[in-house]
Design goal:
about 150 residues, mainly alpha, 6 helices
Length: about 150
């Protein structure tokens, strides 16, 4: 009985942090999409769009089910558990894909990240402040949160 309560509490905590990180990711990725659409020449890169799609899918899952699929797994019958597990697997594959697309941005120093350079270049080409430090931190934040969401 106590182990079941601890498992539920841990599951709720995991889902809460997943929701918190997903909200932060949506904000950061939406800002990047906005910058690429306003200033970009070649559209929005896949390494920005793919994580955004799966973060929005996760937010939809968390908001519509109120407490997330994993929490409901504790109370669902066999078929529903299989469906819930499938959706969690799809989210996992999506985050692995996102991490793979962002693999060139895993550098410790921001100036080595191509996504940061792209954000800076599109702003500089239009004669606007490039915000080098802000964009470097933003790219590192996105990469870190995508990896944490795995």
């Amino acid at each position: 009985m106590v182990a079941s309560g601890i498992a539920r509490t841990v599951t709720w905590a995991i889902r809460f942090f997943q929701l918190l990180f997903a909200v932060i990711l949506v904000g950061a990725l939406s800002y990047m999409v906005d910058q690429f659409r306003d200033f970009g020449f070649g559209g929005v890169p896949r390494e920005v769009v793919t994580p955004e799609v799966f973060v929005c899918f996760l937010l939809r899952d968390l908001v519509l089910t109120k407490s997330g699929i994993l929490t409901h797994v504790l109370f669902l019958d066999g078929t529903s558990q299989i469906i819930a597990t499938f959706f969690d697997f799809v989210l996992f594959i999506g985050y692995v894909t996102s991490a793979g697309l962002l693999r060139h941005n895993f550098h410790r120093h921001s100036h080595e990240n191509p996504l940061r350079d792209a954000l800076i270049n599109i702003r500089t080409a239009h004669g606007i402040n490039s915000r080098e430090d802000r964009n470097g931190g933003l790219v590192r934040l996105v990469v870190g949160l995508v990896v944490l969401q795995l």
